Amino acid sequence: MDQTTRVDVLVVGAGFSGLGAAIRLTEEGVDDLIVVERGADVGGTWRDNSYPGAACDVPSHLYSYSFALNPEWSRAFSPQGEIYDYIRRVTHDHGVRDKIRFGVEVTSAQYDENRGRWTVSTTAGEYDARVLVLGVGALCEPKLPEIDGIDEFAGPVFHTARWDHSVPLAGRRVAVIGTGASAIQVVPSIAPVVEHLDVYQRTAPWVLPRIDRKYPGFERALYRRVPGLQRAVRGLQYASREFQVVGLTRTRAALAPIKALGRAHLAMSVRDPELRATLTPHFEIGCKRILLSNTWYRALSRRNVDVVTTPISRVTETGIVTSDGAEHPADVLVVATGFHVTDSPFFERVRDSAGRTLADTWSSEGMEAYKGTTVAGYPNLFVLMGPATGLGHSSIIYMIESQLNYLVDAIRAMRDRGLQTVDVREAVQNAYNRELRENTGKTVWLTGCKSWYLDAKGNAPAVWPDFTFTFRNQTREFDVSAYRRTTVDRPAEVPTGQEALR
Ligand code: N01
């Protein structure tokens, strides 16, 4: 039988958030730390999303850690391979690779109130940790469409985040289901090589031009020599994205210029009036994530590409049947149908001391945390990219780094004050979420479209409804008074004595 590994801080996941935690905590002097990662390499979503055309739709300088700017980005919007290489390089340069145990998947994590520690079961033994940091990602569990007959399809079927590179597409009939951020990158990349492509569109997205360009050698050299210049460019990119927040969360009228740009982009890219009508979005811009592409509309105008808007009835061995009875033959089926965000299966694996899972806790009130990071009843748990930290308009790395400030300060406070456990007070968490809900109520996300921002009840608990610098300010310091505490010397005797510290 496997032995239990005792560790002070256990981090789950080696993507941007988990690695960031490992780097920042190591710098803080936390040596007793292990990262467990289910995959065979670091990179998280940037390791998994290797589909043709995968790239970032946030500018490169902004989509990097503030402590590891990269002057070598080859273009304004980085392709997936470059970001993946960047993460691997940062892991190596910051000396945290040897802290990671690869091929280790967490199957359950339960808090033990008597010991003030977490018992974490994995596919490779058990861990006993004082602090548990979840860096499992938000957009990482593929959501497969529930379509009749999909299991009977005779050819390959795969999700964009699990692309099967062994399947040749040249000269074959391919069906892509979905028209979100992933589909709009895949379709233009494969359209020129396939014999025929059917794109199944349920909702026409808003698509803006992508102002991309290669960075010439001299510009990269300049960034290398003058890091302040790169920081200034990053700052401008940050500020220009933050302008969108006004329209997304406060004054709808502020979105008018980008709406006009979206309409003009469509009008200039698609000559055929019938196709243009098909591709015209009918929901408020920003309600779903605004997409960026210079090639999407052109790809859909190709002769070998059809946009199918009639709903799918079922999949057969040889293709897709739509509700009008038409049969659309296909050799390969690509599902670009997004991810489980507010209903991540990982939430079922994390239990409080009474055995109640995060999924259960969040099933009635919805996904809620304090400052996106800590959850009442789950002491010493820090959820990176947790509730209300997602973004549609800017770099998620900025939000992750804000959470890392909070995490590092929490660990520092626990060390300095001799605390064994911290558990956010329920009343504090509730008040925080009441205010969040009020702010979210005014956003464009609740104007009637469907998106991964929303949960089954139609609330938007996944996204941050304000300027991102407001979140940065909130998470600058660990506000210990918001927490019930137990001390290191009395962890076992005070399970209910925690109340005394109120
Ligand atoms: O997923 P999505 P995604 N039958 O949920 C459709 C990030 N990302 O993987 O709109 C038919 O956006 C669904 O239709 P509808 C980014 O944050 C970033 O594309 O619900 N269709 C929709 O069109 C992004 O927002 C980058 O009517 C079905 C699509 O599938 C997030 O990941 C790149 C269906 C799902 O769109 C998710 O993007 C890629 C069904 N049963 C992704 N079920 C960057 O560049 C769903 N759909 C950083």
Brief digest:
The protein is α/β, with parallel strands linked by helices and 502 residues long.
**Computed Rg:** 24 Å
What is the CATH topology descriptor of the largest domain?
A: FAD/NAD(P)-binding domain
Uncertain segments of ≥5 residues (pLDDT<50)? Answer: 492-502
Helical residue percent band = 25-40%
CATH class of the largest domain: Alpha Beta
Q: List bound small molecules.
A: 3-acetylpyridine adenine dinucleotide
Strand content: 15-25%
The description of the largest β-sheet is:
8 strands, mixed
CATH homologous superfamily heading of the largest domain: FAD/NAD(P)-binding domain
Q: Would you report the number of β strands?
A: 20
Give the number of helices: 13
Oligomeric state of this protein: single chain
Total separate domains = 2
Shape verdict? globular
C-alpha termini separation: 41 Å
**Broad structural category:** alpha/beta
CATH architecture of the largest domain: 3-Layer(bba) Sandwich
List keywords for this structure.
20 strands, 29% helix, flavoprotein, NAD(P)/FAD-dependent oxidoreductase, single chain, FAD/NAD(P)-binding domain, 502 residues, 5-stranded parallel sheet, 2 domains, FAD-bind_Monooxygenase_sf, disordered C terminus, binds 3-acetylpyridine adenine dinucleotide, alpha/beta, N,N-dimethylaniline monooxygenase activity, 8-stranded mixed sheet, globular, 18% strand
Task: Explain what you see.
Keywords: FAD, Flavoprotein, Oxidoreductase. It holds the Pfam family FMO-like. InterPro entries: FAD-bind_Monooxygenase_sf (IPR051209), FAD/NAD-bd_sf (IPR036188), Flavin_mOase-like (IPR020946). Belongs to the FAD-binding monooxygenase family. The chain has 502 residues and is an alpha/beta fold. It folds into two domains: 5-141 and 340-501, FAD/NAD(P)-binding domain; 150-205 and 243-335, FAD/NAD(P)-binding domain, CATH 3.50.50.60. Helices cover 29% and strands 18% of the residues. It has 13 helices and 20 strands. The strands form five sheets. Strands 1, 2, 3, 4, 5, 6, 17 and 18 form an eight-stranded mixed sheet that branches. A five-stranded parallel sheet has the order 7-16-8-9-12, with no helix packed on it. A hairpin with a 2-residue loop joins strand 5 and strand 6. 43% of the residues are buried. 3-acetylpyridine adenine dinucleotide (N01) is lined by residues 55-58, 139, 145, 147, 160, 177-183, 200, 202-203, 289, 312, 336-339, 450, 452.
